[in-house]
Structure formats: structure tokens, C-alpha cells
Amino acid sequence: MENESKKQQMFDNMKRKKKEVKIVRRIVSVIVLIALIVIGIGGYSGYKYVSSALKPVDPNATDEIAIEVPMGSGVTLISKILEKNGVVKNAQIFKYYAKFKNESQFQAGNYKLTKAMTLDEIIESLKTGKVYREPVFTMTVPEGLTLEQIAAIIEKNTNFTAQQFMDKVTDATYIEGLMGQYPNLLTEEIYNENIRYALEGYLYPATYPFYEENPSLTAIIETMLSATNDIVTEYRSIIDEKEMTAHELLTFASLLEEEATAQTDRETIASVFYNRLSIDMPLQTDPTVLYSLGSHKDRVLYEDLEVDNPYNTYKNTGLPPGPIAGAGKVSIEAALNPSQTDYLYFLADKEGTNHFAKTYDEHLANIEQYLR
């Protein structure tokens, strides 16, 4: 009996130990599972954080942030400067990213960066000493276009319709606001009697990079207007010396732009216009007739010259009320620095070469020789 009792006790002990082992195993399994979950969550959170830190701080930001990189700055200091100014999310991640890309030769200097720049764009800027950004898209506005023609380019390259663009650039309240922003460019002259569009000729022709997928209509317009303001500011002293206004300059330059061909000598054409203005002789330039008609034609007919419109320089002396198109820098410079001649007439032959004359008889001879 005693042996049986001992056996039963041993059996009970074994059962109890097995049960304890099972409980321990369950506890360990739960602990391991919890640990794996915590590690997984931590790893995922870390991955998400790093991924986020590798992206621009604000892809839609447009404001420029002034950054100074002192002489002798290493990647660690530069990373801290960038984080402090909000250009990157995390200095350590920027530093490791730059090292991973084997980039460390950065140039000291002053930069204007934005929160929309990628890490690669920031690195490229710091390497070259120039602010570098990869545009989302570019839009080219050629020289010599009217607002209505620019509207078609806007419609083709953006989500805005041509009509939305025209509504905006003719909105009186909006234009008043622009006049406050650019008081030295947009003056009361844009509201002269007979002006067709107040902003005609004020949106500078160029290729514009845009760094967001859908820039606002005001951002597009003001980018082009700001470029014109920069050009006018650059030549302000010459404009004042010639006793011209910005409006007169852009109007004059637009005539040169519209008269231009691939081989045109703008400075000499400018001299013809100035010579005519000085003796109150009509400018008689065909592009103003076309602008008066409001349509494009390959040839201007004699009957077109009689159109009764303030822009028609065959019927009116002096400059037209305002620009008839957007002029480029070459035409603006020609308007400010014309050749010194006695010419009063010019014509372009079939190859686009210009021929100038001092008298009407000489001009008739040129017509006979080059156009018949």
C-alpha cells in the first residue's frame, strides 16, 4: 500500500509539473508575441518616420526661406541649420542621406530654399552654390502674343480654361490689387481711354518653371507680371533718362516685337518710329491694324487701313493707347537704345530682310525692287 501511495504521489507531482510547464510556455509565448508586436509596431513607425523625413516638408510651399551656410561648414552643421529653418524634417536623416549618396562637398553662401524642395534638390543646390529645383512642369509663353493668345496656352498647360484666365486678367478688383503690389509698373495709364485690356503687354514672355502640379491662376499671372517688373526695374534709370513711362516703353517695344522677323534689325526699326514720332507722322505699322481688327490675317488690305480704331496707327498719330502684345527683352532694349538714323520708312522683303529709306521716293523704289 505504501508503494502504491508513493507512486500516486509521484504521478501527481509529474502532472502538476507538466501543467506548470504548459503555463510557463503560454506565458513565454504571450511575452514573445507581445515583444514581436511591439518590435513590429516600432519598426513600422520608424519606417514611416524615416520615409516621411525623406520627403519635402511641404510639397505645396512657395515661400522662400533664407539660409546661410558659413565657411567651413560640414554636413552635420548644415543638417542642423536646415532642420532649424524648417527646410528638412530631421537633421540626422538628412545627414545620413547625404552620406549615403556620398555627398559632402557643399558650398558656403546664402541660399533661398523652400519647404517644397526634395532632399536631392537641396543637396544639388548646396553643391552648385545655386538654388536648384526640378520643376513639375514648364510653360513657354513666346514673344509677341496677346492676352487672348496667352489664354490659349494657359488652357493647354493647366487646369484653367482660357475664359477663366481672361476673366481674371480683366477683373477690376484684382487689377487694383496688382497695382498696389507693383506701383512702379502698373499705373493709371493702364486705364487710359480706349485701352482694350489693362494688362495687355504686361505679362512677360518666357519659359516658366512651376514646382507644384496645380499652381493657382493668380500665381501664374503674378509670376509673369513679376518678370516684367524685374525687367522694367533693371532699366529704370534709362527709362527715366528718356523721360518715358513704363507703359510707353512696353507699348513701343510691343510694336517692335510685332514687326520683328528672324532677321529684323529692331534698333533701326525703333529709329524709324522715333523719327516719325518726332515730326508727328503716323507710325503706320500693320500690326496695330490687325490688333484693331481683333483678328490675324496674312495680309493687311488697303480697306483694313481705314478701320476706325484708336490702335490703328495709320489713322492716328503717336503711340497706340497701350501695348498690342508681350515684348521680349531684345525689343525692350531696342526701344531704349535705338540706332541713330534719318530713316522714315522700312519694309521687309520676301526673305525677311529689312530695307530702309529716308524719303518716300526711296521707299517706293524699295517696294518696286523687293516686293514686285
Automatic annotation (TrEMBL):
Residue ranges of the TM segments: 23-47
InterPro entries: MLTG-like (IPR003770)
Keyword Disulfide bond applies: no
EC category name: lyase
Membrane disposition: Single-pass membrane protein
Gene3D superfamilies: Classic Zinc Finger (3.30.160.60), Endolytic murein transglycosylase (3.30.1490.480)
Entry's localization field: Cell membrane
Claim: Transmembrane is one of the keywords in the record: yes
Site positions per UniProt: Important for catalytic activity: 259
EC number(s) given by UniProt: 4.2.2.29
Keywords: Cell membrane, Cell wall biogenesis/degradation, Lyase, Membrane, Transmembrane, Transmembrane helix
Catalytic reaction annotation: a peptidoglycan chain = a peptidoglycan chain with N-acetyl-1,6-anhydromuramyl-[peptide] at the reducing end + a peptidoglycan chain with N-acetylglucosamine at the non-reducing end
Gene (UniProt): mltG
Function in brief: Functions as a peptidoglycan terminase that cleaves nascent peptidoglycan strands endolytically to terminate their elongation.
Protein name in UniProt: Endolytic murein transglycosylase
Family listed: Belongs to the transglycosylase MltG family.
